[in-house]
Known about the structure:
The chain is α/β, with parallel strands linked by helices. Helices cover 39% and strands 14% of the residues.
Amino acid sequence: xxxxxxxxxxxxxxxxxxxxxxxxxxxxxxxxxxxxxxxxxxxxxxxxxxxxxxxxxxxxxxxxxxxxxxxxxxxxxxxxxxxxxxxxxxxxxxxxxxxxxxxxxxxxxxxxxxxxxxxxxxxxxxxxxxxxxxxxxxxxxxxxxxxxxxxxxxxxxxxxxxxxxxxxxxxxxxxxxxxxxxxxxxxxxxxxxxxxxxxxxxxxxxxxxxxxxxxxxxxxxxxxxxxxxxxxxxxxxxxxxxxxxxxxxxxxxxxxxxxxxxxxxxxxxxxxxxxxxxxxxxxxxxxxxxxxxxxxxxxxxxxxxxxxxxxxxxxxxxxxxxxxxxxxxxxxxxxxxxxxxxxxxxxxxxxxxxxxxxxxxxxxxx
Length: 366
């Protein structure tokens, strides 16, 4: 069986280092916001090219903390509108609503699965104060054009970079450094995945980073001195030790992912399967390799019959979820088509050449 994702095999590569780091963590006697967190925050900020990285509990909390900090700084106000791609994972929408802001759904380009600056521009009104751009499936979303649009309209630009670790634009700038602030998830399945829950905010805005650091830790600058009404969204100290190990291998893993993606793109010739757009650059880390098929259930069952697992990201669009029933009446045909047709093929850095070729062969005779 070719597994869709074998996390055990992915992490097995680092087992001896994990064990050594765990012993260091254990011996330190400091298990919350200690040296491991400080080291990872420094290293990940340097990797992304930002002045600051703030480790937090997960990717959703990273987004929520960004919005909460901007509200406390007076750069956003309750009720302000935030533009967001309609086909994103629902966490992006939740972060906006949770902080008293209003999401405005924008359709993506069906070829890239990401939105474009020209479409975003059509939705800008006096009520819109921020853009939440999502680098879906690991591909940067028209980054330079969206940044220019945000600047020209005096809008905050926040990146949902939960899937885009290490993706670079044409100027060599990485995800996390393409707007005012960015949120990352280090959920185990991500390209840079922890062995549990973890996330981070990256930014070069020193004031914003300071507020987020306070908010994540009960609103305190130092113990028992609370300057804000905060929450407990601290990153797990142990996870930062593991993440720091894997960070050193992220670029190599992304290179392997792009290599496999290129094999799929060159080798899959079945007209029933619509392949994703890719321009051959580092702007895609191929967190996911998503194809579109008309009869998804039949296609996935066929793959499984041939011992190939697949997945769906995501089976139902946010505006059709019961939690967001206030948006049920929205007409978003491109988003709905993508969610009805998308299938994620196996793609990760531990896939063997034999497995890659089998996936190609099986799909071509579908």
